[in-house]
Design brief:
Blueprint lengths: L2 H19 L7 H4 L16 H25 L16
Helix pairs in contact: 1-3
Length: 89
Amino acid sequence: MQLFSILAVYFIIWWLTLFLVLPFGMRTQAEENDVVLGTTESAPSKFRGGKVVFTTTVVAAVIYAVWWVLSVELGYGIDAIPQFYPRFD
């Protein structure tokens, strides 16, 4: 597999994982009883970008490693999924 393909697959997995990790651990301003004037109560109370990026990178690396083993090393892919077609006899 070429380097560009490896990076492209990892980026797609990382981006999807970002949206899965983003809401975990978020505390709203309403939950903290510290609503800043001019913001909505559901806005995050603290910026935690570094933690989210780190967690996303670790989780995406694990998912990518599983994908790599299944698809590249063991040869499982889209063609390995059984397909059932109706028989018209």
